[in-house]
Hints:
- This protein is mostly helical.
- Helix content is 33%, strand content 7%.
- A three-stranded mixed β-sheet has the order 1-2-3, with helices on both faces.
- The chain is globular.
- It starts with 7 loop residues before the first helix and ends in an 11-residue tail after the last helix.
Amino acid sequence: MLRDxxxxxxxxxxxxxxxLVQGHSAGVxxxxxxxxxxxxxxxxxxxxxxxxxxxxxPISGDDAEAxxxxxxxxxxxxxxxxxxxxxxxxxxxxxxxxSFAVPYFADPARAKASWDEAREAVRPGRPLxxxxxxxxxxxxxxAHRMRTLxxxxxxxxxxxxxx
Length: 163
């Protein structure tokens, strides 16, 4: 795992981080959503239910009723949803996947370059004091495109992720 350090089970592909959380949360019906979109893009990309340029967010969970409730909430907040499967499938929209954050930028190539620059800046252990990440107003990402991104994403194990 990149952000939270190394955790053997998800790093080896034997489980996902969400499955680990679920395992420590008896009785909780966990649904993962909103983790793949930049916080600044949430208000910028929310649209009314009848808008032709609605953005889609992936969701994952093992409980159908909980996913239905999350879908209702997400739709009320101005987004469509794409069911990415159960908690074992959350890797389709985690960091370094094709659907993680970059596709919501108006200039995805510039956003990716900015993140690569940040990754290189901290590699030697320097703080990012003088680094300002690229940010734009975002671009709608329709459900059909999200489905394609999810389907095209190969699983990256912790050891394979950029450091």
